[in-house]
Amino acid sequence: MTPKPAPLYRAYYKSPIGRIEITATDKEICSLDFVQGKPSGRATRLSLALRACLKQLDEYFAGKRRIFELLLRLEGSEFQCDVWQALLDIPYGARVSYADVAKAVKRPKAVRAVGSANGANPISVIIPCHRVIASDGGLGGYGGGLWRKEWLIEHEWKHTPVPAKKKVK
């Protein structure tokens, strides 16, 4: 017998960089995508996961949250899931290259595959694919549009605490 799929709930979030559609089960976030124009579906009642996600997005965009504490449902190939897990380890405000991520997943020659997995990230912002840039310092790509990637990077830089300077004795 095939297990019954978990019910999906949907909410829309108005962020400073556009409307976001979020889908979730009762406990897990399944997707977070920027949507253009009129939403493709209707919002549903809010599951526990959606309530937590909306609250944490408010905190993130206010510059008060650096780490999301949500359960995520990752559905993709083993390699994609490895890449998405590696993206979760990139610190707030940091930038790493696609090559850095390839090394982190122990596939140093799979830079292009990392780029493809990064582009297939189903839970943008929360899984911070915007923190991955080209080795030459260029932004690379971003499914939500390069202007959003640039905004997210600048937003995090603006809210990243500066390390205290050492006192000179």
Overview of the molecule:
This protein has 169 residues and is of the alpha+beta class. The chain contains five helices and five strands; from the N terminus they run E-E-E-H-H-E-H-H-E-H. The protein has helices at residues 48-61, 78-88, 98-104, 111-119, 146-158, and strands spanning 9-15, 18-24, 29-34, 96-97, 132-133. The chain has a three-stranded antiparallel beta sheet, covered by helices on one side. The longest helix has 14 residues, at 48-61. It is globular. The N and C termini lie far apart (71 Å). Mean pLDDT is 90; it is low at 164-169.
Can you tell me the overall shape? globular
Taken in chain order, the helices and strands follow as EEEHHEHHEH
Distance between the termini: 71 Å
Strand content: 5-15%
Q: What does the largest sheet look like? A: 3 strands, antiparallel
Number of DSSP strand runs = 5
Low-confidence stretches: 164-169
Structural class: alpha+beta
Number of helical elements? 5
Radius of gyration: 17 Å
Strand order of the largest sheet: 1-2-3
